[in-house]
Amino acid sequence: MLKGKNLVITGCLTGIGRQTLTDCVRNGANVFACAYEKTDEFEAYCQKLASENGRQVIPVYFDMMDDDAIKRAAREIQGAKVDIDGLINIAGINRDAYFGMISKRDMQDTFQVNFFSQITFSQYIVKLMLRKKAGGSIAFISSTTAFDGNEGQVAYAASKAALLGAMHSMAKELGVNGIRVNAVAPGVIKTPMTDKLSDELKAKKTELMDIKRLGKASEVSSVLIFLMSDMSSHISGQTIRIDGGIR
To answer: Among all residues, which ones are annotated catalytic?
Structure first.
């Protein structure tokens, strides 16, 4: 579905990001695999993934808390001198605290990574997408908490809701250039982050679903692949919930 496309994906180190990197490459994409830090394991994984699939996987390391690092990463991608067809913004943090306890610093950090840095990075990458004058696709990872809220996630829910507002405006602005902008809103997906949740809480969440199990990271990456592919060529300004039918 993605043969020959050049994608930029953030948050590739673990979880949904790692799964999306893997599945995009297996579907024919070359990927700039953005991650928070360089590790021997991740370097080896990228090399193995590229070799096994005959694709290019180029690690790019930067901290989403650092605006200068974001700019340097964008320049590194620009320096590769290839057309960029798509951007998947997955990187994010979660500073959980109840409303009465959350600090201003935690709120600022959450918005810096989950919103401000993603918009800034997208601005840089869109310039590269416009260079080829052939459209493209951007996808943000929001969350069902942006719609439904969740106890102890005031800052997280607000940051993910902010992404949706930006996505709608970006879709209107960039559509004239053939660039589609969408979002996905996962529910409770089995990842290293959700593995830390209590069995009681996961059971409570599962009971609210029509499909009574946790989602898989691959079920999120499949939708992202669709949004990056030409099969979604007339879809823009949309948010797709991936939550097992939470009510």
So the answer is: 156
